[in-house]
Every structure is written in structure tokens, then in C-alpha cells.
Amino acid sequence: MAMQANEIENMIREQFPNASITITDLAGDGNHYSAEVIDESFKNMNRVQQQRAVYAALKGKMDGSNGELHALALTTKAPSDS
Element (H or E) spanning 77, and its range? Predict the structure, then answer.
């Protein structure tokens, strides 16, 4: 079963309530998305740690061939200090 963009955003927002989150359906099929997550908590994390934290927020929705979400191109970063 495919996921909706708002479902993905809501799951990420539970873990990162103040984040700037942009979800894009790349193929129009509800299975291939990109997500950009910008959050203050990422400041002291490397990119791998940031992405693991976001994947953990998805609570297994991408696990294995039976996962509801097939592909997520993920960009994470801390906000700029500009």
C-alpha cells in the first residue's frame, strides 16, 4: 500500500516538530519520494547520523520488500547561521 506525502511528513514531524520539511512525490505513484528535512538538532550530527534519525522516525515503513514506502531520496541539514 502506497503512502501519501502528508503521512510521511507527519511521521517525521513527530520526531522533529520544529523542522522545515518538504516532501515531493517523484513519480506520482505514492512510492517514490524525496524529502528535505532542516532541523536545529542536526547541528552536531554528521550527515549519516542525520539521515538515520529521519529514517528511524519512519518507524519501519521502508523496511524490506513489504514496506509501505519504496524509495525516499533524503536531504538533511541544520539551518544556516546567516
Answer: strand 71-77
pTM to 2 decimals? 0.88
pLDDT number for residue 65 = 67
Distance CA 79, CA 67 (A): 31
* Sites in the chain below the pLDDT cut of 70: 1, 64-66, 81-82
pLDDT, tens digit, for every residue of 25-44? 998 888 889 999 999 999 99
Pick the CATH number of 5-77 from 3.20.20.20, 3.10.20.310, 3.30.750.24, 3.30.300.90: 3.30.300.90
Interacting residues of 46 by C-beta distance below 8 A, sequence separation 6+: none
Handedness of CA 66, 68, 70, 74 (dihedral sign): negative
